Structures are given as structure tokens and as C-alpha cells.
Amino acid sequence: MTIALDTKPGINHQRISDMLNRNIILAPWLSTEGKINRISKEQQELILALARRLNENRIRRIKMLVVDERMFVSEAYALYMHAEFLKSTAIYLSSMKLGTLRVTDEMIHVADRLLAEYLKNYGSDALVNNYMLIGSYEHGQLLEFYKKVPKEVYVSGRWHRPWTEFPLDGELDYAISQSAVKIDADGLVQLTDRGREIYQQVKQVLVNTGYLQQRARWMRISNFTNLEDYDEVIETLGPDAHTMRRKLIHMSGIKPGMRVLELGCGTGTLTFDDGLHQIVGATGSIVGVDLSAGMLARAEVKRKRLGIENVKFVQSDAENLPFKFQEFDAVVGFGFLHFTNIPKVLHEVVRVSKRGAPFVTMFPLQFPASQDFFQEWFGDLLAIQEQEDSNVLLHSDEALESVGDFFRDFETFTTEARIPYDNPAMVVKFFVEVANFFDGALSRFPWRARQEKINELIERGEVIVAKYGRRNLVSKHAMQWIRAVNS
Ligand SMILES: C[S@@+](CC[C@H](N)C(=O)[O-])C[C@H]1O[C@@H](n2cnc3c(N)ncnc32)[C@H](O)[C@@H]1O
Fold first, then answer.
1. What is the model's pLDDT at position 40?
2. Looking at the domain covering 230-485, what would its CATH class be?
């Protein structure tokens, strides 16, 4: 089979977004190998056997490819590509649907079914093209960041695609044939002007199809799932969190007997630890929704320990709720709205809540970058972040524009919460790695550079703690509150 990388937005849009909708993924961040061996030897063999079958059944006819230069895709490459899709999709499904780090055989078979259906609809050329687009993005990101890398590094994928178990020399040959990269006399690979142009085109396709945003989200949700000590982390980094959650419950005006929806419920802190369940009482009920199966599993442990029957947890995206029209008397959500597509969430809130139902939420705004220690610690990331479009943390008017589109009646204000920065490992793990608050800046970093940056920030934090003293490392962070009524 021969194929050429197609970067046309129109052609790519449908087949990439459909791949996303079907939960077929190549999300390397989820397969941070080395931390834990998620797939047993037997499962590796199962994946290869299924990949072989997918490869044999693939539709060989090449359609939609209109570029002249072609890359030869060997049987081995195609086999490996299917295996990589199967593996990442199975890791993703196990983490998202089951909340486990270990992959189950069942999820490998589900991944196989998803891929088979996709291949039936689009043919293998589309899958190869998607694979190569994503791969070219990683290659381009590597060379943009490091400028020159040894050929062996490029081909092994060690710095940018460590999950790859197949030598990437075919991809290097292809990139050379496209005049996208060149190798200098010292054996160092670098982008050409043409290569930089292709990288920008590829990046644009992955931005426009929503792939990169979706990948950042997968990474975040899987990091929440893996964060076993979430409650302890928030106790440390958010000493005002309990007080703020109780304030949110108070502002909502929720009364005994109401049916309440809690969005982004996490480990159930608002419901169990901070009193929402006590307020709705035995005659009311609460449904907690979160995308992270791991967070929900922790909430469920609390529910069982307390023997509470009228609270239920549902794994779902707040942007697409599995509930009927006007099911709830109130909707609340603490510290989650900034992670979502706000208009989509508000549309769902209005749909599932009754007329007159309150919606109350609170979320952090952008970092207060004015303090010296903060600048010293995160200034380089903040500077890159300013040049990028994407920022998880919102500025003060950003959410309000959407709220005004969905609610005629709402009030808003900001308060300040204390955040102690004296535990560098925890600060960096939560703000940088899990919540990914510097997503815009870090989107420029290939895999290895990202890991190195995280370690460097922890070390820098320790120097800052020694320099300023623990007690001087408390920052005041702006929190935005919104109380709206569905009219
Ligand atoms: C900072 S935690 C807050 C958890 C909890 N509300 C609390 O007060 O501790 C954010 C939560 O939002 C969840 N989340 C992020 N995006 C989401 C989405 N689109 N739909 C549902 N939950 C989401 C995360 O999985 C995580 O559990």
C-alpha cells in the first residue's frame, strides 16, 4: 500500500472528529510506560493477534488521497499502527470506563470492535493518514523544540514518542522525501522551511478538528483518575476549600427534599464532607457527575462507608448529560467549569434543570502572577502561555459572556483564596501535571521535555522555598462565583 500524508482540513475534519467521537485514540500521555506496566505479556500477544486480523481485513483501496508523492506503508508498519491504536484505546477505556490503570482483556476487545467499525466506514487509508498526521505533529514538535536531534533519537522515538515500539525510519525517509527534514553531516535531523510549513499545517488540522484539545482533556482526566491522594492534595493546596464549598451550598438555597445535580463532583467532597447530603436529607437525592472514573470510585467508597442510598454517581461529560429535560431542582459544581466547554455545559444545565432552579458554581481565575516568588518559579511558562491561545484558567469576564447567553438572571463576584506554595512537589504535580494549568505553554513541549520541565519546576520550587521561607509562600488566588436561576 502506498500513501501520502494529507493535510487538507476538509478531508481530515470528518475522519478525525469521527475517530474522536468513537473514542479511538492515540493518546500517548495515557501510556506513560515505565511508571507502571499496564499490559501483560499475554495481552501484548492478544493485541498483536487482533492487529494482524484488522490488518488483513483492511480495505486496500486507496481513496481520498490526492497528493503525488507517496509513502510506502509496509505490512509491518500497518500492523504496528493497528497495535498502537488498539493499545492506547484499551488503556484509555480501562482508565476512563473502569478507573483502573491496568488494562483488561474486555477493553482490548472493545477497542478492537471500535477500530473494526471505523475501518469499515472509512477504510484503512483514513486510519493511516490520521496516524501519520498525529505522528508528524510529534516529529515537528520535537524538531521545533530541540532544533537538531540525533537521527537515532528521531528514529527510536525516545524523546517524543516513547510509547512507539517500532523504528520510525520509514517515517524519517518519508519526511526526507517530502523535503520536510534534512540530516546534516553530524547526523543531526532538523526541519527545513518546508518542514516548518507542513508542521504548522498539521498542527492547524489537529487544532481545527479538536484533536489537540481532546488529547489535553484525556490527559487531564486520566491524571485525575491516577491521583489517589486527591483529598489530601486539596487539603494542602486549598486550605479554604471546605469553607468555600459550604458557602456555595449556602448560596444555592438548596432545601430538604430537592433533587440536586452536582457537576464535576470528584471524590464527593461537596456532597459528603461539606454537607450537601445533610441538607437535601432523606427525602431528597443527589446525582454526582464526573468524567473521571477514578475520582468517582473514591466518591463511591465514601458513599458505601456512610451507608447512604439517595446519592448516585454517574460517569459522564458535563457537556453531554444523560438526563431528561427538567429533571433537577438545582445544579451545583465546585472547581470544574474552567475545565469544560462552558456554553455546552450551560446548555445542558438549562436543559436538565426545572424553571426557577438555581445553578451555583465557583472556579479559579488566572494565576496572580505579580508575586516575586511566583514569577521566579513559573515566569518562563507564563511568558510562553501569553503567546498561546489556550488557557484553562479563565480571566474574569470570559465565563460571564456565556452565562449571559443562557441565563437572564444571574449574579457574580470574586473572592480570594489562600494557596500555600510551600510544598513544591505537590504544587507542581497538581497545578502543572494533573490540572495542566499551563496547558498552552506545555503544548509546545515534546514528551521528554515535558517530563524534564516538571522535574525542573519541582527543583526550582525547592530553591524558592529555601530562599523565601515557607511562611512567605502564600498567594491569594481570585475565585469567581456565579449564581444563576433558570428562567
Ligand atoms: C478540581 S476537581 C474538583 C472536584 C470536586 N468538585 C471538589 O470540590 O473537590 C475537578 C473535577 O472536574 C472533573 N471534570 C473535568 N472536566 C469534566 C467534564 N467535562 N465533565 C465532568 N467532570 C469533569 C475532573 O475529573 C475532576 O474530578
1. 87
2. alpha beta
